[in-house]
From TrEMBL:
<dbReference type="InterPro" id="IPR038084">
    <property type="entry name" value="PduO/GlcC-like_sf"/>
</dbReference>
<dbReference type="InterPro" id="IPR052517">
    <property type="entry name" value="GlcG_carb_metab_protein"/>
</dbReference>
<dbReference type="Pfam" id="PF03928">
    <property type="entry name" value="HbpS-like"/>
</dbReference>
<dbReference type="InterPro" id="IPR005624">
    <property type="entry name" value="PduO/GlcC-like"/>
</dbReference>
<protein>
    <submittedName>
        <fullName>Heme-binding protein</fullName>
    </submittedName>
</protein>
<feature type="region of interest" description="Disordered">
    <location>
        <begin position="114"/>
        <end position="134"/>
    </location>
</feature>
Length: 134
């Protein structure tokens, strides 16, 4: 089971609405069950540097089936995942804004958001993750 393009568009629409509500343009990426990007949007005015970050947050969330903020908490010095950010050819992101997406208890993809503070990225990703899927 994986996400479809229609699912990705629904997730992005919900995330864009939250980004607009808080007044912060964002990069929003949605990955499928294999960690491959289905869709990405860069809102007008969002940072160019956030494109890769949002894509890699979605990949990270799916690759490890964990929110990137939680992975970050566990990858600090003396923690079990210290140094993980250097794995997977440097694609691993260990700060807020990446969330695995589940359907019937199974991970079917992930959303990654970049463009604001960690709290803003997380809030926008959470809005996307809460979008009702078909």
């Amino acid at each position: 089971m994986t996400l479809t393009l229609a699912d990705a568009r629904t997730i992005i629409t919900a995330a864009e609405a939250k980004a607009s509500e808080i007044g912060q343009p964002m990069n929003i990426a949605v990955a499928d069950a294999g960690g491959n990007i289905i869709s990405h949007v860069r809102m007008d005015g969002a940072w160019l540097g956030g494109i890769d970050i949002s894509i890699n947050k979605a990949f990270t969330a799916r690759a490890f089936d964990i929110q990137t903020k939680d992975l970050g908490d566990n990858s600090q010095p003396n923690q079990q995942y210290y140094g993980i950010h250097a794995s997977n050819h440097g694609r691993i992101v260990i700060f807020a804004g990446g969330i695995p997406l589940t359907r019937d208890g199974e991970v079917v993809g992930a959303v990654g958001v970049s463009g604001g503070s960690g709290e803003q990225d997380q809030a926008v990703a959470e809005a996307g993750a809460k979008a009702p899927l078909a």
